[in-house]
Amino acid sequence: MSKNRSNTLVIGGAGFIGAHLLHALLGTGRSVTILDKDEASLSSLPQEVSRVTGDFGEPDLIRELLRSHGEVIHLAYATVPNVSFENPLADLLENLPPTLQLFAEAAALKRKVLFVSSGGTVYGEALRLPIREDHPTNPISPYGVTKLTLENYAHLFGVTKGLQYACVRPANAFGPGQKPFAGQGFIATALASVLCGDRIRIFGGRGTVRDYIYVSDLAQGIVSVLEKGHHGLIYNIGSGVGRSNMDVLEAAAGVIDASNSSINVEYLPERPFDVKVNILDATTLRNHTGWRPQVDFNEGLVRTWSWLREQYG
What we know:
By secondary structure, this protein is α/β, with parallel strands linked by helices. The chain has two domains: about 5-170 and about 210-240 and about 280-295, Rossmann fold (3-Layer(aba) Sandwich), CATH 3.40.50.720; about 185-210 and about 240-280 and about 300-310, UDP-galactose 4-epimerase, domain 1 (Alpha-Beta Complex), CATH 3.90.25.10. It contains eleven helices and 13 strands. It has helices spanning about 15-25, 40-45, 60-65, 80-85, 90-110, 140-160, 185-195, 215-230, 245-255, 285-290, 295-310, and strands spanning about 5-10, 30-35, 50-55, 70-75, 110-115, 165-170, 170-175, 200-205, 210-215, 235, 240-245, 265-270, 275-280. The strands form three sheets. The chain has a seven-stranded parallel β-sheet, sandwiched between helices. Strands 7, 9, 11 and 13 form a four-stranded mixed β-sheet that branches. The termini are far apart. The model has no long low-confidence stretch (mean pLDDT about 95).
């Protein structure tokens, strides 16, 4: 999208992915501002990052920030996939209007926008694997429906208002800093359950199959799209490898055994809103930017386990 170093605004950047993303952005020489509603999370960010507490749905605030920033990464989202089922209308209303306002303001001021969508939910059940960006999109969760709707609005604003944008569809990120028991993030929740002596719930057989990507690799993928991605395109960011819930636990067993902890599994029936298999093809991203994952899955598990032990051990 842009090879120029600039001021970058990250909306919702005080969370798990944002904390890693800002380090990747700073590494490119950019000046970074984080806008987030969570003042406590903002306070823990590095001093070289500008921090603004507020809601990006406030038109005056977002307009003021856009005037002094050349590019925007939109990470903010009010719900997680599981919670979106409890109130689909709230999922839509809390996320759609403020994002449309952002797109409108960015288009008017000719600012670049990178929208972080969802590779795990927008496609729905896979017709072929691994999933490329041109795979049909038939989401089976309100979260996925809303994410896809926002992608479509980005395209609409691009065609009708000249919005300069790209979208990324990440696989399932994991790594240090991911809060367990938050409605998403199987690896963090499973490992923390071991530390707390709780059972790990597996829905159906060996559980769902997901593409897991270490969070720093995801952050670098986002920066790669920001710097070298093509205007108006959608990019998958994933490892291209699928692992079931039980595959993850079996891979983690050696790390966990070293701490004399044990894995206890509770098997439950499949859930209708869980996509059975999701594995992403990131060939387009690799061809356009040269990006490749750098952190081996097992090494990522070791790092995640080490961090969680400090928090919950």
